[in-house]
Amino acid sequence: MRLVQVDAFTGKAFAGNPAAVCLMDEPRDATWMQDVAREMNLSETAFVEPASKGFALRWFTPEVEVDLCGHATLASAHVLWEEGRVEADASIVFSTRSGPLRCHQRRDRIEMDFPSRPVVEVEAPSGLFEAVGVSPESVWHSAVGFLLELRSEADVRNVRPDFGALRAIANAWTCITAPATSGGFDFVSRFFAPASGIDEDPVTGAAHCSLADFWSKRTGRTEFRAYQCSSRGGVVFARVDGDRVHLGGQAVTVLRGELVW
Q1: Tens digit of each residue's pLDDT (9 = 90 or more) over 33-44
Q2: So where are the chain's domains?
Q3: Can you tell me the distance from the alpha carbon of 261 to that of 258, in angstroms, rounded to the nearest whole number?
Q4: Which residues participate in catalysis according to the annotation?
Q5: Alpha-carbon distance 41 to 19, whole Å?
Q6: CATH number among 2.60.130.10, 3.30.1490.20, 3.10.350.10, 3.10.310.10, domain 2-115+247-258
Q7: Which tens digits make up the pLDDT trace of 43-83?
Q8: Tens-digit pLDDT profile for residues 182-195
Q9: Using CA of residue 59, residue 125, residue 178, residue 240, what is the dihedral sign?
Q10: CA 19/CA 42 separation, integer angstroms
């Protein structure tokens, strides 16, 4: 079974967010997929299977299956085009737990049509600020988790969470964000999900379905160039279009192999 590892949301190897893409010719059960994802030990492993209309796509962290994943979707589309399974000028439609996701090749990046994950302002659960190590300007929540607005890019970059404490808070996937002051970006972010086996996700496409909504509310704009400033770093283009968010980014293949079990 073909297995490809891709660095997503980056134009260079060993940056962005690595995802394993498993190209299946027949169905496998969720237990097997979870075992493979644990073996890969990446933030996400994607499982792609031919379907009547396009491809079926599922995503697993080392601990759980997730409903939506941007970087592993980007990686999957990149692999299908690169391996010649889909013509370069054809779009790809993935059937997923979050509905159909359509991907296109643009001149300088892959663009994905994702559902928006709107944010609403909320009260934070007890202990969240202390676990993340911040005093945010505002607190929001969406289907992707909590979003904490910080004052500056430096504040985002300097955060050092207590992952043990964060892991103890139920449903505490947490994104932090602030306006960008470097690199020509509109905003920066980081994303933490230790309860799902990912202390810090390098670049989180799904979080930008909420970040784009938040920054659109803040600025009145609908198009953004964003940077997720993890240690690996990655660039995400986001465009709000009604109840959809178009996410764009580059991808680089770093490993090709064969899964023999």
Answers
A1: 999 999 999 999
A2: 2-115+247-258, 120-242
A3: 9
A4: 44
A5: 10
A6: 3.10.310.10
A7: 999 999 999 889 999 999 999 999 999 999 999 999 999 99
A8: 999 999 999 999 98
A9: positive
A10: 6
Q: Does domain 120-242 have CATH number 3.10.310.10?
A: yes
Question: Hey, what are 249's tokens?
Answer: 């980014």
User: Is residue 198 helix, strand or coil?
Assistant: strand
Average pLDDT score over residue span 82-91: 96
Report the length, in residues, of the chain: 261
pLDDT of residue 52: 87
Fold match flag (2-115+247-258 vs 120-242): yes
DSSP string, 100-113: EEEEEE-SSSEEEE
- C-alpha closest to that of 149 among 171, 170, 174, 166: 174
Q: Give the DSSP H or E segment for 85.
A: none
User: Cβ neighbours of residue 35 under 8 Å, at least 6 residues apart?
Assistant: none
Q: Which amino acid is at 32?
A: W
- Alpha-carbon distance 251 to 76, whole Å? 10
Whether the pLDDT of residue 6 is over 90: the answer is yes
pLDDT (0 to 100) of residue 169 = 95
- Percentage of the chain surpassing pLDDT 90? 97
Percentage of the chain lying above the pLDDT 70 cut: 100
Asked if residue 211 has pLDDT above 90, the reply is yes
The one-letter code for the residue type at 201 is: D
Least Cα distance to 205 among 122, 109, 137, 125 occurs for 109
